What we know:
Elements: E1 7-12, H1 18-30, E2 35-39, E3 52-63, H2 66-74, E4 80-85, H3 93-98, E5 101-104
Parallel strand pairs: 1-2, 1-4, 3-4, 3-5
Amino acid sequence: MLQSNRLTIYAIGKIKKLWIRDGINQYEKRMPELIINELKTFNLNNLRSNNNIIICLSEEGKQFNSVELCSFLLSFKNKKINFLIGDTDGISSDIKKKCRFYTKFVSFNFSS
């Protein structure tokens, strides 16, 4: 089972849309150990360590279904998993060059 205390989401830029803010609030209620950081800028070097996995969310990323993503995340054993979400312009090319993993969220099944 994937432990939510190993997951961090970094959102670059200001989250302006109310429906996104409402979604964040829901996930924080359901998974209180999940860390969601909203940042104006991001320095990838702050996450560089052997225990950190950085996954950039990008249109160029690999598409997983829910089961595949779960298996992918579980393969990292006890490492800290960090998702990096870009602003309206996406993730800068400098940061993309330093990320080892890319994914995009399009065909997941979210149950209520």
